[in-house]
Amino acid sequence: MSWRVWRERFKRVDSLFLRLFLLMWVTLVLSHLVAFSVVSPMGVAWIGQLSTQGASALPTLPSLPPGNPLSDRNDEAGRRPPPQWAPPDETAWPPDAVAGPDAGPRPQPRALWLDYVLRALIIGVGAALGARWLSAPMRRLAQASTTLSQELADGRDPPALDERHGTVEVRDSARAFNRMALALKHQFDQRNLHMAAMSHDLRTPLTRLRLRLEHLPEEAARAAGEDIRAMDELIDGSLAVVREQSTASPPLRLDLGALLQSLADDLVELGQPVSLTDPLPAARVCAHPASLRRIVDNLVGNALRYGGQARIALHVVDGQAQVWVDDDGPGIAPEQWDRVFQPWVQLPEAAGIAGAEGSGLGLAIARDLALREGGRLDLSNRPEGGLRATLHLPTA
């Protein structure tokens, strides 16, 4: 029978139980052998007899050495087994059974303690090596699970675990993980496709609106044209973000100050009350341009909606670039800061603010994109009133 056939048959019964059983058995035998070789007066003399006597030279290994390590009277215990265990004809006992393997007195407490320590040490080393051996598949699973979200966020194929090697439990876990990863990849691709399709399809009604502007008065046509232009920019930004995530394009080294200046100029040109703190410090970051612009644009839009105006500032603190977006709104209670980052959440306090109607997605999208870019997004209330949204990004 070929080796491949034997290997396939063994894989059917290869399990954690079988490996643990074999490991415990080998470690136990090895601990007895080492302890006997070191403590027994015979020492390792039996090793020299292996070449001439073969396996029959192996010594008889008791499970534990005779004697009490807490007593110093082991020599007085005698050389023969207790009377209740002795056979009627004492000559029936072989020398090894009567006198012990070393045909001498029982070991002294010091030798007994050395025996126990050696056995414990060997078993401990075996347990440590065995734990590392048996837990290797779990470490690979943990590593794959850790990188899964980042791989999916970057548009790359998810990590795949080896389904052919390992115990039955390991192979089953690998197959389950790979199926889950592929299902998540499919869901991410479908989500990005739906977002791209929706953004693309919006261009058709916008084109019709442009044609109808010709029948409006000049002032109304100009205002409507600015709104259509803003919607076009939002669509372009959404498509750019989806394209960056789907094609796994690498991040670029950007001048963060120039990006903020460009965004603020565009909003001011549209008549929005947006200001940018000057001068801007030099700050370069590695990020996707469309995603980074979308983050700041969402924060500024949130400030305009709830605070009436937005003030953008840039600071560099301890190797971190911090983008501040301040407003003059009512602020948010600290216990609500985590809640407003959840999708579709709108606080009751915003209901009375004119023009503050929204979907509750701006901050959720901004935080998600910030995490994808290796940063984070925080909220705080300013002492002088209003809310401050802070984007933290590592400098490059």
TrEMBL record:
The name of this protein is histidine kinase
| EC class of the enzyme, as a word | transferase
Q: What is its main location?
A: membrane
Which GO molecular function entries does the Swiss-Prot or TrEMBL record give? kinase activity
List, alphabetically, the PANTHER family matched. SENSOR HISTIDINE KINASE ENVZ, SENSOR PROTEIN CREC
- Where is it located? Cell inner membrane
Where are the annotated segments for Disordered?
A: 58-104
Domain (Histidine kinase): give its ranges. 197-396
Membrane topology per the entry is:
Multi-pass membrane protein
Which PROSITE patterns does this one have?
HAMP (PS50885), HIS_KIN (PS50109)
Superkingdom, natural source:
Bacteria
Membrane-traversing stretches = 20-47
Entry's EC annotation? 2.7.13.3
